[in-house]
Fold this protein.
Amino acid sequence: MTGINTTVVHADRDVQPSNAVAPPIYQTATFGADDAAAFAHAASEPRGKDFYTRFGNPNHAQVAAVVAELEGTEAALVTASGMAALTTTVLALVSAGDHVIGQKSTYGGTASLLLTLLPRFGVTTTQVDQTDPGAFERAVTDRSRLILLETPSNPLLQVTDLRAVADLARAHGVITLADNTFATPVNQRPADLGVDLVWHSATKYLNGHSDVLAGVVAGPERLLDKVWETALLTGATLGPFDAWLLLRGLRTLPLRMQVHNANGIALANALDNHPAITRVHYPGLAGHPQHALASSQMSGFGGVLGVEFAGGFHAADDFIGHLRHFRRSASLGGVESLAVHPASMWRGMLSEENIAASGVPLGLIRLACGIEDANDLLEDVLGAASALDS
Ligand SMILES: *Cc1c(COP(=O)(O)O)cnc(C)c1O
């Protein structure tokens, strides 16, 4: 088996559309065919690359080849954003009357899909405590169709036992779909643990430069063919130039993750036990309640950590104001470090009730370490934490 650094550089070799070493951008909405038979074939080939860009595009095919190899799946489908990947996949797999299980600690968009969109179409949903695999099992009914997993979760970094949930889901004939955005296939490969489908906000680590919104879903062809048919209807197509940028970002994913992982653990260790901080949420910390599970299914722990301030909402907000290298921004996974205060960000989007239901403490900051020098980031966060006392 080739190594991961070779995979990201060469896994698209078979779908490279020309001899150009840096691939051309197929900035075209549509493609011509020489005769009726070729036209009919191009129109019906799942994730084909030369019919009409909503059906597929050479730039999509290159990204998909690399992601499928990274995740260890048969195929992958590229979408216009992470949310497009999730919504398209869920709509492809469920019908009115079905039941979907998700996690209590999960990305805000995933929670909204479960709480508001699906119920409008007669799909019932249940959110469970993902730290207990038994909670998933207890939630399964004879109408359960899909389990949405996310580990580590956003923004509490809670860990889900992927193998345990994948096993119980299979026993009940339920499909599992895991959000692997935080871990990336460098740190965790859910398909190896039995999860059926893996999706990403490729906006984050996969692209890595905060300049593209994109999504991807990877898995077996029989499921991805269905997702592709629905993608034709949701129309959440990634632009060819954005796919080209995403491929360029993927080429350095393992290199970048090494630094994100190193910065993440360095900051987690430095902030753990700081007097202004009540808790650091980072599964790489030896004292994290799920450290053993995390270590069994992850080879690194990423650059995102949750930091909970003793002074609550105001201390958290104040802390961000003192940071110099971390910018106040709602994203993660890029080369630059970003910080966000979920409680103040969500005030404009979620009801107080839903903020409380998410279990996110008011004094929690999500720090997303970029690839800057660890010493500079350490100085930044320790300086900002000390400034709180004065
Ligand atoms: C950002 C994010 C998403 C949503 O992805 P978009 O590309 O913004 O649509 C989903 N899951 C997680 C964990 C995320 O961080």
